[in-house]
């Protein structure tokens, strides 16, 4: 009995590379339970290291790497599939983010995913939903160093989300960079926040919510200072925020702030965080807000467990996108099945692991390769690529979307591989193999009829890819397909590839 229970225990960890702080939460999965083991936080101030050209300074990179070295010590012995690292606004904005990621892999041997603001919002909501008492509907607000996320949902499902590029670090640099705390500075910062929120007000008020929650460091600091004011229930209200702003204005500078409950590390960006939250209260007419311990890293952690249980939001995202763009699903499914079969035949030869995420990405790309047809037939592959790269796709990080877009871009026509982007999480040779597989699967299903394809075998002999059919007369009876394969063979040759059939 003890051995069977022990086999069900798995250690997992989620890391959030935020604009102001890096966070790590470690948990163990025992049966169906997720038990938190430890939390780790380090103030890194990554966003403050962005220069005017949006490059991270060497000092900011070093601060981040030093933190990751400490995280790595805690994660010794963890398997790769049990650690997920997500990066948010600062690394989304940084032009030299690949430099940081490459150096980070040297000290922390796990992939780093840069996620979109919308994906960050969804995961934040998931973290709050899993750690709070159930309510009819929730508004969740998270004010980070570089962005602010606002989400409305019910249960574990998001109904409305948005990410705005305003955070406690960026607003400090913009409105309090001289360190002065004046009513004029507060007024300018408040006006700027209200202008960012104005386009969202109508839909958020119309949607409504029953309970409002705030997550992460900014709102936690505000709650703790309000408790120091004597508000022991920990609730945040508009009146109390106004009182807090009045108190801040009594100090001449940020360095002079002395408030019970406010840590030394949070002090430099505290005023900007208060301004943003106050603007949100005014714009959305929030009555009161509770603090939630759950945030982005908890959302990542719970979704890791959900994915192991095969409850993958990415499949739902794919289906919704296909329906939205009127994809011919019968054909897309045929391409998906053919691509899956070809992948399985050569996976080992290509050195791809059995449970690699590459197969899932190939399957999703097959289902969505024609989303651009809804725009126009000429150049539809480029339309498809644009949609897949720039559409909000819950569950996918930025690089996963880039993989889907790349597969769609190179699904047909000439192979201009000089246009292929760089990747951090995936091996380029593996992605080139996926491009070949998808192109072949599309060609083999080019007739778009109900006729079943015969058994087709794919082998790889060095640089040579060989397609073979059990029915030797099949190509003679399908002259159009034969012509398509001949044309494809020529395209492969122009790219330095070899195809034989």
Automatic annotation (TrEMBL):
Pfam (any one): Ppx-GppA_III
- The domain of life for this entry's organism is Bacteria
What keywords are assigned to this protein? Answer: Cell membrane, Hydrolase, Membrane
Q: Which residues form the Ppx/GppA phosphatase N-terminal domain?
A: 25-307
What EC number(s) are associated with this protein in UniProt? 3.6.1.11
Listed GO biological process terms: polyphosphate catabolic process
Topology with regard to the membrane?
Answer: Peripheral membrane protein
Q: Which reaction does it catalyse?
A: [phosphate](n) + H2O = [phosphate](n-1) + phosphate + H(+)
Q: What class of enzyme is it?
A: hydrolase
The GO terms this record gives for MF are: exopolyphosphatase activity
Where in or outside the cell?
Cell membrane
The cofactor required is: Mg(2+)
InterPro entries given for it? ATPase_NBD, Exopolyphosphatase, GppA/Ppx_hydrolase, Ppx_GppA_C, Ppx_GppA_N, PyroPPase_GppA_Ppx
Please list the coiled coil stretches. Answer: none
Regions that span the bilayer: none
Q: Where is the Ppx/GppA phosphatase C-terminal domain?
A: 313-489
| GO cellular component entries | plasma membrane
PANTHER family the UniProt entry points to: EXOPOLYPHOSPHATASE
Subunit and partners: Homodimer.
Q: Its family?
A: Belongs to the GppA/Ppx family.
Under the heading NCBIfam families, the entry gives: exo_poly_only (TIGR03706)
- What name does the UniProt record give this protein? Exopolyphosphatase
Q: What organism is listed for this UniProt entry?
A: Psychromonas ingrahamii (strain DSM 17664 / CCUG 51855 / 37)
């Amino acid at each position: 009995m003890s051995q069977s229970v022990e086999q069900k225990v798995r250690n997992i960890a989620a890391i959030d590379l935020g604009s102001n702080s890096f966070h790590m939460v470690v948990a163990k999965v025992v049966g169906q339970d997720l038990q938190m083991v430890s939390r780790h936080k380090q103030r890194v101030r990554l966003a403050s290291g962005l220069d005017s050209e949006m490059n991270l300074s060497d000092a900011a990179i070093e601060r981040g790497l030093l933190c990751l070295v400490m995280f790595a010590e805690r994660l010794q012995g963890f398997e790769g599939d049990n650690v997920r690292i997500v990066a948010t606004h600062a690394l989304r904005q940084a032009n030299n983010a690949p430099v940081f990621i490459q150096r980070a892999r040297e000290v922390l041997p796990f992939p780093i995913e840069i996620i979109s603001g919308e994906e960050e919002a969804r995961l934040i909501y998931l973290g709050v939903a899993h750690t709070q008492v159930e309510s009819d509907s929730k508004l969740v607000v998270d004010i980070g160093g570089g962005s602010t996320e606002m989400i409305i949902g019910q249960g574990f499902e998001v109904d409305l989300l948005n990410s705005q590029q305003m955070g406690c670090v960026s607003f400090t640099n913009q409105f309090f960079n001289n360190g002065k705390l004046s009513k004029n500075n507060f007024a300018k910062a408040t006006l700027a926040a209200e202008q960012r929120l104005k386009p969202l007000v109508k839909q958020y008020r119309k949607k409504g919510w029953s309970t409002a929650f705030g997550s992460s460091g900014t709102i936690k600091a505000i709650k703790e200072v309000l408790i120091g004011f004597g508000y022991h229930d920990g609730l945040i209200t508009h009146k109390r925020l106004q009182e807090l702003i009045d108190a801040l204005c009594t100090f001449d500078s940020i360095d002079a702030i002395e408030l019970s409950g406010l840590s030394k590390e949070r002090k430099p960006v505290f005023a900007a965080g208060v301004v943003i939250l106050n603007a949100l209260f005014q714009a959305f007419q929030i009555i009161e807000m509770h603090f939630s311990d759950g945030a982005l890293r908890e959302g990542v952690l719970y979704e890791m467990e959900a994915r192991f249980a095969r409850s993958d939001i990415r499949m739902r995202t794919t289906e919704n996108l296909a329906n939205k763009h009127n994809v011919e699903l019968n054909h897309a499914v045929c391409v998906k099945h053919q691509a899956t079969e070809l992948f399985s035949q050569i996976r080992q030869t290509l050195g791809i692991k059995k449970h690699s995420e590459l197969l899932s990405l190939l399957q999703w790309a097959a289902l969505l390769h024609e989303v651009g047809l809804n725009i126009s037939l000429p150049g539809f592959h480029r339309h498809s690529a644009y949609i897949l790269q720039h559409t909000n796709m819950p569950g996918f990080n930025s690089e996963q979307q880039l993989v889907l877009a790349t597969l769609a871009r190179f699904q047909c026509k000439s192979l201009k591989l000089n246009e292929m982007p760089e990747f951090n999480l995936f091996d380029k040779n593996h992605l080139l193999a996926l491009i070949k597989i998808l192109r072949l699967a599309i060609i083999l299903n080019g007739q778009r009829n109900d006729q079943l394809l015969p058994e087709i075998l794919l082998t790889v002999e060095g640089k040579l890819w060989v397609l073979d059919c059990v029915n030797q007369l099949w190509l003679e009876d399908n002259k159009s397909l034969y012509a398509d394969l001949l044309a494809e063979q020529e395209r492969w040759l122009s790219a330095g590839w070899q195809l034989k059939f």
